[in-house]
Amino acid sequence: MKRYLELSQQLDAIKAEMSEIAKKSFEDGAKELFNNFSQLESFAWTQYTPHFNDGDPCSFGTDIDYCNINGIDDCNGSNGNCIKCKKDIYRWNYSKTPKEEVKICTDCGGEAEYPMGPLADAVHSFLRAFTYDDLEKMYGDGYKITVTREGISVNEYNHD
Ligand SMILES: [Zn+2]
After folding, report:
1. Could you list the residue range(s) of the whole structural domain that residue 94 is in?
2. pTM over 0.90
3. What is the pLDDT of residues 4-20, one digit of tens each?
């Protein structure tokens, strides 16, 4: 029991320190993203506690898995083309488990290209590094957060 309580205290201390440095880490990490990707203009997500959840308990959540990049809801960099025949290709094959990236055009065998892929992957993994707890502490409950080169804006978000 003693060891358990010790570890529990350590965990609380670690969580408190994480929360303390979260905002600065976020700002530094965002700057790095904009430096690494010149085509990145903005990314945005919402976070709130729903008022209604089909009879299930309503708990705080975010939509970072469906975040918005450069004004487009394509957090997975899903839209691409065949470099030969230019056909539109969707990046992910969800019929495979785990999902697989589509690399070859089924029409002509040409290579598939996803211009937003690496950028979307970087933004996505950056956002997912933060715990929901820390995101709530940093930016509140019921908000849309938009990050640009100029800074971070937090606006009230109307939700169900
Ligand atoms: Zn093709």
Report:
1. 78-115
2. no
3. 999 999 999 999 999 99
